[in-house]
Design goal:
alpha/beta; Spore Coat Polysaccharide Biosynthesis Protein SpsA, Chain A; 9-stranded mixed sheet
C-alpha cells in the first residue's frame, strides 16, 4: 500500500486476549536485495499469527522507494495485511529509518526484521508470547545463517555475531539478555518512545537494549523465534571478519559514551570470560576427535578478540581527540568573546 494505506486489518480474531497488537518493520536501502526484500515481506504475510501491518521503510534510495510502492501497492485481497511503504524522514540511516517506522506504527509492539531475512511461520507467535509479562520491554529471536557459499571451516560459531546471526554462547531457552540481534528483535512501542527511540545508526540494537534495561524493563532472548538470515559470500572472508571485529568495537566506544549511565560492558565481559573460554575448550575437543580445523577456529577466536581490543583502543583515542577538539573550540570561542569586550569582565 501507499503512505495513506487503510489499516482495517485486525488479525484472525482468535489470538489470545492478552496478546499485544504487532507492527512489523522492515528497513531496506539496497536495490541488490530486492528479491530478498520480497521474500522477507512474504514470510511475514505467512505468519500463523499475522501482524496488523507491515511497514517497509526505504532508507534514502528513490529508485527502491518507487519500485517498492509500485510492487507492494498492488491491489490486495480483502482482509489482507496492509503493507505500507515509507521513506526514511530523517538524515540518518538504519536507526533513523526504524524511528520513522516507530512513529507511523499502530501496533503495541514493533517487530524488526532485516530485508535479507525470512521469518519462520511461527516467528511472531514465539517472539510476542513473552510480552504477557508487563515489564518485558524488548524480545529478540534467533537469526540462523543461510550461507551463499559453504561456511568457512575456520569461522568460529562464537563469532556469528559478525555476520548478524545468533552465536554459540547465547541462552538455549527464553532468558534475559543484555543484547539482541538487530535482524530479529522487537520492543514495545510505548517503551521505545519512553527512551527516545533509536539514538544511533551504528550499534542501534545494542543502544536500544541498554536504554530499555536502564529504564528497568526486561530484555529477553527467545531462541525459538527464528528467522533465516542470508549471508553473502563477501561476509565469509577473513578480510570481512577482522574488519567487522575492529570497526564494531571501535564504534562501540562512542555509542557507550553517549549512553552515559545506561552503558554496561557486562555482555562483553561475559563473552570474553565465559563464551570464548568454553569455545576454545570445545574446539580442542573437536581436534582430539580428529577435526584439524578446530585449531583454525581457536586461532580465529584469539585473533578476533585481539583485533576487537585494538578497535576498542582506537575508539577511545578517537573519542579523546574529539573531546579535546571540542574543549579547544569552546576555549577559543570564550577567548574571542572576552577580547571583543576589551578584556573587561562581564
Amino acid at each position: 500500500m501507499s503512505d495513506a494505506a487503510p489499516r482495517e486489518y485486525a488479525g484472525r480474531g482468535d489470538e489470545p486476549p492478552n496478546r499485544p497488537t504487532v507492527s512489523v518493520a522492515i528497513c531496506a536501502y539496497l536495490e541488490d536485495r530486492w528479491s530478498q526484500l520480497k521474500k522477507s515481506v512474504a514470510s511475514v504475510e505467512a505468519q500463523t499469527s499475522p501482524p496488523i501491518e507491515i511497514i517497509v521503510c526505504i532508507d534514502h534510495n528513490e529508485e527502491l522507494l518507487r519500485k517498492s510502492k509500485e510492487y507492494f501497492g498492488k491491489v490486495r485481497p480483502a482482509g489482507a495485511i496492509p503493507v505500507i511503504v515509507l521513506a526514511n524522514k530523517y538524515n540518518g540511516h538504519l536507526g533513523a529509518a526504524r524511528n520513522t517506522a516507530v512513529e507511523f506504527a499502530n501496533g503495541e509492539v514493533l517487530a524488526f526484521l532485516d530485508d535479507d531475512a525470512a521469518a519462520a511461520a511461527d516467528w511472531l507467535d514465539r517472539l510476542i508470547a513473552p510480552y504477557e509479562e508487563e515489564r518485558v520491554g524488548a524480545v529478540g529471536g534467533k537469526p540462523l545463517p543461510v550461507f551463499e557459499v559453504r561456511r568457512p571451516r575456520w569461522f568460529p560459531f562464537e563469532f556469528d555475531w559478525v555476520i548478524g546471526c545468533a552465536y554459540r554462547g547465547l541462552p538455549s531457552t527464553c532468558a534475559p539478555s543484555a543484547r539482541l540481534i538487530g535482524a530479529n528483535m522487537s520492543a514495545r512501542r510505548s517503551v521505545l518512545r519512553e527512551i527516545g527511540g533509536f539514538h544511533t545508526d551504528h550499534q542501534d540494537d545494542m543502544d536500544m537494549c541498554q536504554r530499555i534495561a536502564y529504564a528497568r524493563y526486561r530484555v529477553l532472548y527467545e531462541p525459538l523465534a527464528i528467522v533465516h538470515h542470508f549471508v553473502p559470500a563477501t561476509r565469509t572472508t577473513w578480510h570481512y571478519f577482522w574488519r567487522k571485529c575492529y570497526t564494531a568495537n571501535e564504534g562501540k566506544v562512542e555509542v557507550f559514551a553517549n549512553m552515559q549511565n545506561a552503558a554496561s560492558l557486562s555482555a562483553e565481559l561475559t563473552f570474553v570470560t565465559r563464551t570464548l573460554t568454553l569455545g576454545v575448550l570445545a574446539e580442542i575437543r573437536q581436534v582430539i576427535r580428529g577435526d584439524p580445523y578446530g585449531l583454525a577456529r581457536v586461532g580465529a577466536m584469539i585473533a578476533g578478540i585481539t583485533i576487537a581490543g585494538f578497535g576498542h583502543l582506537s575508539g577511545r583515542l578517537h573519542l579523546r581527540r574529539s573531546r579535546r577538539r571540542t574543549c579547544d573550540r569552546v576555549a577559543e570561542s570564550e577567548s574571542s568573546a572576552l577580547g571583543a569586550r576589551g578584556g573587561r569582565g562581564p
